[in-house]
Design goal:
mainly alpha, two-stranded antiparallel ribbon, 59% helix
């Protein structure tokens, strides 16, 4: 027979964590989600309830963190819930060019940041057109013509699935905070160490231990003009 004290204690834990998840600060919510993940089905139920109640509002990185627990769970109920409520993922995959960002969402949800970075460049080349797709890199003049809707989709995917650490908007915010000083920016996001550029791929950090703004690389290997065009894009105005 199950000890009723254990059952009661678990229920109390669940209720306490549910309240904390709903009403806590971002930092507290961030700490609560892994605790719920450790509690098996009961914890997953709370996360599903949390996401369902917030489904009418734009996803934040807290939603992304809860979604990732469900996405990476083997529990059938989690898979059924996501298929029913978030069949394309937690971030709406809007595109003015008919581009499918589903593979990017899946890679980011799985925290495969290196593969997601490669797909990001591919999708940006796809935005630029067949010639860019064939050459596999971008001219800064092509970036200027990107639809704002698509840039927002790519950026939101990165922000939501990285605890708010990665994304073009995060990088731009850091760059502006440094007075648009490129040398300080490269150093701050660890794209450069002293006079040495960070070497692709092994010297980059492909997980959440990376500094804020470290990813995506946004054609980093081709110099400043592409990223400068990205930061100057009207999408961020």
């Amino acid at each position: 027979m199950t000890d009723p004290m254990i059952v009661s204690g678990t229920a109390n834990d669940i209720d306490s964590l549910r309240r904390t998840l709903i009403a806590g600060s971002l930092q507290v919510q961030q700490q609560t989600i892994p605790k719920l993940a450790e509690l098996g089905d009961a914890g997953l139920d709370v996360l599903m309830e949390f996401l369902q109640k917030r489904s009418d509002t734009p996803a934040t990185w807290i939603d992304g963190k809860a979604y990732q627990v469900l996405y990476n769970s083997d529990a059938p109920k989690a898979k059924e819930f996501l298929l029913s409520h978030f069949p394309e993922g937690i971030v709406p995959l809007k595109s003015d060019c008919g581009i499918n960002y589903n593979s990017l969402q899946q890679l980011l949800a799985a925290q495969d940041f290196q593969a997601a970075d490669r797909v990001t460049i591919e999708k940006m080349c796809e935005l630029a057109g067949p010639t860019a797709l064939q050459r596999k890199w971008l001219y800064f003049t092509e970036v200027e013509n990107f639809p704002s809707v698509d840039l927002h989709t790519i950026n939101n995917l990165w922000v939501v699935h990285s605890e708010g650490k990665f994304g073009f908007s995060i990088q731009r915010e850091i760059w502006l905070g440094l007075g648009k000083n490129w040398d300080n920016f490269w150093s701050k996001i660890h794209w450069k160490n002293g006079n040495n550029w960070t070497r692709y791929p092994n010297e980059f950090t492909w997980d959440l231990s990376a500094p804020r703004g470290h990813l995506p690389l946004s054609n980093q290997l081709r110099g400043v003009r592409v990223i400068a065009s990205l930061f100057a894009h009207p999408a961020w105005k």
